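Model it.
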Amino acid sequence: MISFPRLDSWNAVSEVATIVAVEEKKRILCRIPLKILHDKYGATTDTPMQSVSRHREVIQAAAKNAIENNNYQQDGSVLLSLANL
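Modeled.
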């Protein structure tokens, strides 16, 4: 089972939002670049996490799908794209 505790963060330097998934006590960082948040949801550099909050269910479903399909980056994180959402 995959769960999503409310451990969200924003990295202003790399312009990437991160949500955390937990599967079998293992944390998986799920990253969404600002460009994707902007293109899909109209997010700006001032409001990226508001977009994440508003669209949490869709983002979590995309992250869950990526995890279940083993779509991991080399560092063990999941990078969501427009195609995922």
